[in-house]
Design brief:
Layout (H helix, E strand, L loop, with lengths): L12 H7 L6 E4 L11 H11 L2 E5 L11 H5 L7 E8 L10 E5 L14 H4 L7 H16 L1 H22 L4 E2 L10 E5 L5 H10 L19 H5 L4 H4 L2 E5 L6 H18 L2
Parallel strand pairs: 1-2, 2-3
Antiparallel strand pairs: 3-4, 5-6, 6-7
Helix pairs in contact: 6-10, 7-10
Length: 269
């Protein structure tokens, strides 16, 4: 059963707790991969533990940007309840595409999806990608070592980008939590503009953006996240997600600020 998010895109912890009654398992995002709002993962884990429900946390967008200590999030939950698994994707932190990791508590009961061999404790048969695993381990070490410094740098770029866009396009609005959000995420609403047209016009200017998460790329539908936040379908078709990463610079922000006013004007005709 789905749990509502509030107007900032955050999971309502009270509704999450209420929805756990009778649930076999629960899953939640540590941070919303579209609007960038960071959820209270600790509260979600505590609620799942109190209800005796195993919880999986999707930390794909949060890894490398917010503190993630599995032991702390799990707390003293009893065996098989509360946080039992957390997943990340390697490409988000510079590891090879296709690598990833599932952190599981020792009490988690996991059924194998691939059978035929005893690899990985009998959970996944087949030849293991040792180079990929080693690369992911190094990427995790590097991402954590520079997390605070890089988050500060990205947040400064993000804030300058948001302020510049709002100044250049007064009708625009920032969606998601204005403070408790991923450091490299700027999710903006341009009322009356067609999101797909914005993407095309910005692409012509050499700027890559999206109207939703990468999971929805190529799907010309209104953002289900924006709709869940209580916005109209028209608003959900008029949003733009701009994200910053390790290679982003002040010059990249400058390029967006130069291109965005004309792109919005043309996409609104």
């Amino acid at each position: 059963r789905p749990v509502p998010v509030d107007a900032l895109g955050r999971i309502d912890t009270a509704m999450f707790a209420a929805a756990l009654d009778g649930a076999a398992v629960a899953t939640a995002l540590v941070a919303n991969n579209e609007v960038g709002t960071v959820n209270d993962a600790r509260a979600l884990s505590l609620s799942a533990a109190a209800a005796g429900v195993p919880l999986h946390l999707d930390a794909v967008s949060a890894c490398g940007h917010v503190p993630l200590v599995f032991r702390d999030l799990r707390g003293d939950a009893s065996a098989g309840t509360g946080l039992v698994a957390m997943s990340i994707a390697g490409h988000k932190i510079g590891a090879p595409v296709g690598t990833g990791m599932l952190v599981a508590s020792r009490s988690a009961r996991i059924a194998p999806l691939l059978h035929g061999g005893s690899q990985q404790r009998g959970l996944r048969a087949g030849t293991q990608d040792v180079p990929g695993a080693a690369a992911l381990a190094v990427a995790l070490e590097e991402a954590e070592a520079e997390r605070e410094r890089e988050s500060t740098r990205l947040a400064a770029l993000r804030d300058r980008l948001i302020a510049g866009v709002l100044a250049a396009v007064p009708s625009a609005a920032l969606l998601g939590d204005p403070l408790d959000r991923l450091p490299g995420n700027a999710h903006l609403l341009f009322p009356g503009a067609v999101g797909e047209s914005l993407l095309f016009l910005l692409d012509m200017a050499g700027i890559s953006a999206s109207t939703g998460s990468a999971c929805q790329a190529g799907v010309a539908e209104p953002s289900h996240v924006v709709l869940a936040m209580g916005r109209s379908e028209q608003d959900a078709r008029s949003v733009l997600r701009l994200t910053l990463g390790a290679t982003s610079t002040e010059a990249d922000v400058d390029a967006v600020l130069v291109a965005i006013p004309d792109a919005v004007a043309r996409a609104s005709r």
